[in-house]
């Protein structure tokens, strides 16, 4: 049992090719290293495995019998090692999701997942708008007014929109919030061009005559514009809650605009078993489903 595994492997490779040089190339060793390992093996076994000639080698009778006996064992051992090595290799998952969801919700929580699952790699592709083509991925988080029909879709939470601005604008218009709507630029996401008018109607504001409306193709840009004092933004809750908690933005009105917009988790290729994907999907649902503003 003192015989090293590497000597047995070198012997098997050399026995198959009848060449120390060829065995060395396969094992990424030097021919002299292979020859030395086999010599040690012969000394430990007390038998001669090869007949060595000037430019060739051949198996002795004992060497052939030993090869026939040991070769299946070494093959089984290598297969077992490879199988368990593959189990330890990282699994890769690709996720497509809106950039605002990624930055405001997923990133602050992601360390919980990565610390528990260090062998699962995540590749995230972020999208600015729901109209962008969804890249091929294992899983998607999508914003939609209706439940997606492709893949396995699970509802996470619905959105409502609230007018918000920075502290300076809030103080400037503290005595007349309604008049601010007609004097200050109103900012919204270009995917919802009529959202401000819909909000004003729901809020019962009759004298709604904005002087300027700014549309931005990124919800992060919408929130950032309000933070910088460019105007008043319609920001989505609960996804923007941290902006309010950190006092980067302040609610100008309490009345929200409730919409049919909802975030859904969509698993693709559900017919193929994927334990890592199932684990991540379960974590996303348990972490973000039905969160409240």
Give a summary of the structure in a few sentences.
The chain is of the alpha/beta class and 293 residues long.
Spatial gap, N to C terminus: 67 Å
**Beta-sheet strand percentage?**
15-25%
- What is the succession of H and E elements? HHHEEHEHEEEHHEHEHEHEEH
Q: How many helical stretches?
A: 11
Question: What is the C-alpha radius of gyration, as a whole number of Å?
Answer: 33 Å
Q: Which structural class fits the helix and strand makeup? A: alpha/beta
Give the tags:
alpha/beta, two-stranded antiparallel sheet, 11 helices, 11 strands, 24% strand
Structure description:
This protein is of the alpha/beta class. It is built from eleven helices and eleven strands. The strands form two sheets. Strands 3, 4, 5, 6, 7, 8, 9, 10 and 11 form a nine-stranded mixed sheet that branches. A two-stranded antiparallel sheet has the order 1-2. Helix 2 packs across helix 3. The longest helix has 28 residues, at 61-88.
